[in-house]
Amino acid sequence: MLGHRGKARTGAGRSSGNGSFDETSWWWVPIGVVVGLAVSWGIAGLIEGGCRRGPRGGCVAADGYELHGWVLFLASMPAMAVVIIGLAAGYWPPTLGLAGGGAAGGLYALGQGQTESYVISAGVFFALAIAAPTVTLCRRLKGIR
Hints:
The chain is mainly alpha-helical and 145 residues long. The chain contains 4 helices and 2 strands, in the order H-E-E-H-H-H. Helix content is 64%, strand content 4%.
């Protein structure tokens, strides 16, 4: 089937069925890395600065760490999309984006300190970095898309 420019359609960003990358799906990896780093940076700021009681009683970023809280808040929806698509997709580009973002976020968290909070944060990021390719590989070996 031909697309609007006369070229064969390959699945709009999906990798071809033989495990190779489609040239239009490269953007998943940098998006995953940027989202992973943004979430890790936001979490690191909240770990370092802590929470103070907000006007309605909830947890608010401490003075001087508001930008970390906003970045974490604004990165939460793209992070959710990257994680869900990275774990549920049966093709490699979103999976590698999640793996790259998890690895980058985990390394950033460990670079901030070795306290229990940073190690737990890094562990969650590394678990995502390992789980995404494992799930995709198992799905491809079983023939599930």
